[in-house]
């Protein structure tokens, strides 16, 4: 595998430290660059400060701005950024019905590693 491609940057927006650490660890193992936000406000600010972010894994329920609100803010200055909604509530895309302009996809929590990397592969084309 050639290493001439730039490393993709993923922002994990997740208020639960254990979940955030788990995602960060498995993403770093696959050589992704990882940024972490503990709430929606921090996610918006990191997206503003880091134009190199390629994809956001956005939790629904967070303190401050929730996942929907944070995505709305991010869309105002990064309209083409891929944002995948993380939720424990629904296992299919019905969770994002009406919110297709905010999220490209949804992933069920707890996140399974193979499912995560299948989704990432389809959105992070080198």
Topology:
Blueprint: E1 9-13, H1 17-29, E2 33-37, H2 40-49, E3 53-59, H3 67-77, E4 82-87, E5 105-108, H4 113-123
Parallel strand pairs: 1-2, 1-3, 3-4, 4-5
Helix pairs in contact: 2-3
Q: Characteristics of this structure?
A:
126 residues, alpha/beta, Rossmann fold, 36% helix, globular
Explain this structure:
The protein is of the alpha/beta class. It has a single domain, classed as Rossmann fold. Helix content is 36%, strand content 21%. A five-stranded parallel sheet has the order 2-1-3-4-5, sandwiched between helices. Helix 1 links the parallel strand 1 and strand 2. The two termini are 12 Å apart. 27% of the residues are buried.
Short description:
The chain is α/β, with parallel strands linked by helices and 126 residues long. 36% of the residues lie in helices and 21% in strands. Helix 1 (17-29) links the parallel strand 1 (9-13) and strand 2 (33-37).
CATH topology: Rossmann fold
Structural class computed from helices and strand pairing: alpha/beta
Helix amount: 25-40%
Question: Regarding quaternary structure, how should these chains be classified?
Answer: single chain
Q: Please tell me the overall pLDDT.
A: 89
Judging by the overall fold, what is the CATH architecture?
3-Layer(aba) Sandwich
> How much beta, percentage-wise?
15-25%
* Helix and strand pattern: EHEHEHEEH
Into how many domains do the coordinates divide? Answer: 1
**Level-1 CATH class name:** Alpha Beta
Shape by Cα distribution: globular
Largest sheet: 5 strands, parallel
CA gyration radius, whole angstroms: 13 Å
Q: Which regions have little confidence, pLDDT < 50, spanning 5+ residues?
A: none
Q: Using DSSP, what is the number of strands?
A: 5
Major β-sheet strand ordering? 2-1-3-4-5
How far apart, in Å, are the first and last alpha carbons? 12 Å
